[in-house]
Specification:
heterodimer, A: mainly beta, 7-stranded mixed sheet, B: mainly beta, 6-stranded mixed sheet
């Protein structure tokens, strides 16, 4: 079964702690993305990566960091510098130019 | 700076009638446009796409129209069914760097 997995589905953290969200894909896609969804604001791009060992900031990268050491994996770290981290986080990938974006099931992060 | 805009947060139609969801964009670097359907706490699922070299693409009950001069696209669903009730996101890809931007979404409710 090809697809994108994100774990866990729900994540709780105390304020001031860093937390890393997992995203793995077995679709052999080069490009991977992280989005954040807040009520009424749609999907906002945090970071994206076109290829291993390369990534670019999206619209709201402040307070987040990523790595792309393997093609299959694109973990997102929500740092303590992110002022409002509670949100629904979506990971996605695509095969390249003019191809659809596939999404994972999402992780809901709640910072207490 | 929101590059993809969906100005209608919600739309309600009667079963069997046509649903028209609208989307506007500002970036002339976008060359590929997509529509996604999303249920709460799940990742979006791909519906239909259109390349900038076309002005219409049809897939069953779903048709996407692109008006490049107006930087506007629309999704038509006909006939609408109660199972179509969801949030619909418009997305656009920048051919220059392959990043993808989403609108804020339109919540469609199809009443029986």
């Amino acid at each position: 079964d090809g697809g994108i997995t994100q774990s866990p589905k729900y994540l709780f953290r105390k304020e001031g702690q860093n937390v890393t969200l997992s995203c793995e894909q077995n679709l052999n896609h080069d490009a991977m993305y992280w989005y954040r969804q807040d009520p009424g604001q749609g999907l906002r791009l945090i970071y994206y990566s076109q290829i291993v060992n390369d990534f670019q900031k999206g619209d709201i990268a402040e307070g987040y960091s990523v790595s792309r050491e393997k093609k299959e994996s694109f973990p997102l770290t929500v740092t303590s510098a992110q002022k409002n981290p509670t949100a629904f986080y979506l990971c996605a990938s695509n095969a390249g130019w003019q191809s659809e974006q596939f999404f994972g099931p999402g992780t809901r992060l709640t910072v207490l | 700076d929101q590059q993809v805009k969906q100005n209608s947060p919600s739309l309600s139609v009667q079963e069997g009638r046509i649903s028209i969801l609208n989307c506007d964009y500002t970036n002339s670097m976008f060359d590929y446009f997509l529509w996604y359907k999303k249920y709460p706490a799940e990742g979006p699922t791909f519906l239909i796409s259109i390349s900038s070299i076309k002005d219409k693409n049809e897939d069953g009950r779903f048709t996407v129209f692109l008006n490049k001069s107006a930087k506007h696209l629309s999704l038509h669903i006909v006939p609408s069914q109660p199972g179509d009730s969801a949030v619909y996101f418009c997305a656009a890809r920048n051919y220059n760097n392959n990043d993808m931007r989403f609108g804020a979404g339109t919540r469609l409710t199809v009443k029986p």
